[in-house]
Write a structure and sequence with these properties.
This protein has 270 residues and is of the alpha+beta class. It contains four helices and 15 strands. Bound molecules: 2-acetamido-2-deoxy-beta-D-glucopyranose.
Length: 270
């Protein structure tokens, strides 16, 4: 009887895992890289790889118009200088919208740069860059984009790091009409990524590998889910301040050289 209960519990646990676990075979297509991108472990794990010949990439089968999208990434370990892992949402066309995470690799023991940007109606130029408060190559960490009609919130392991608010009332276009897909790719950018191209990719370390797991997308259904109306509460705002104070290394909203005539309107409330 006891054994039966144990088996039953294990069965239930595995059903739950199957029902809620991500399946990369079901949700994503490999788009390029000639065998360098692999879906492994029954669809639970996806790896991108980069060698001297090429990188690789994938995209979601579904398009999203608003969503709360979580993905766990483990970035290229050791000497990853010159490699860039991009993970982003984007629509198509010249007036496209885009929400970006980009991870710029570094020499062993030196910090990655996490680069973020938001494009609306084809226009970006809203870069913010951060260091992370952990080594992103040791374990999987969750990178999330919450996108609803009021705001876009970037988070890392549940800590919000950036918010882009809907400021259409101030004339700032906001992404709300064009559905986006999820894209990711790993490529070589040693012409600019590492200290402006000073540090070159060390091909003796190739292949470089980034891994993905536990994808989860919450979409809007008829009964408005929580995230659809969510904005940053006081705790969230304090967390963003903490991240920006301690880990932000670049903010277009404070770059006077770029905006001598005054900062873009979203900067006054960002
Ligand atoms: C790499 O590490 C150096 C030294 O800590 C740092 O200045 C730089 O911003 C880091 N990131 C990149 C992409 O070069």
């Amino acid at each position: 009887m006891k054994r039966f209960v144990v088996v039953l519990v294990l069965l239930i646990i595995s059903f739950v895992l199957v029902a809620f676990g991500s399946n990369f075979n079901q949700d994503f297509d490999i788009t390029w890289g000639d065998g360098r991108a692999k879906i492994l472990d029954n669809g639970n794990l996806l790896t991108l790889s980069l060698d001297k010949i090429s990188g690789s990439g994938f995209k979601s089968k579904n398009e999203y118009l608003f969503g709360k999208i979580d993905m766990q990434l483990k970035l290229v370990p050791r000497n990853s200088a010159g490699t860039v892992t991009a993970y982003y949402l984007s629509s198509l066309g010249s007036n496209h919208d885009e929400i970006d995470f980009e991870f710029l690799g570094n020499l062993s023991g030196q910090p990655y740069i996490m680069h973020t940007n938001v494009f609306t109606q084809g226009k970006g130029n809203r870069e913010q860059q951060f260091y992370l408060w952990f080594d992103p190559t040791k374990n999987f960490h969750t990178y999330s984009i919450l996108w609803n009609p009021q705001s876009i919130i970037f988070s890392v392991d549940g800590t919000p790091i950036r918010q882009f608010k809907n400021l259409e009332s101030k004339g700032v276009p906001y992404p709300k009409n064009q559905a986006m897909r999820i894209y990711s790719s790993l490529w070589n950018a040693d012409d600019w990524a590492t200290r402006g191209g000073l540090v070159k990719t060390d091909w003796t370390q190739a292949p470089f590998i980034a891994s993905y797991t536990n994808f989860n997308a919450q979409i809007k259904t008829n009964n408005n889910p929580n995230w659809f109306t969510q904005s940053l509460d006081i705790t969230g705002q304090e967390r963003i301040k903490w991240v920006q104070k301690n880990y932000m290394i670049y903010n277009y909203c404070t770059d006077l050289k770029r905006f001598p005539q005054g900062f873009p309107p979203e900067c006054s409330t960002a």
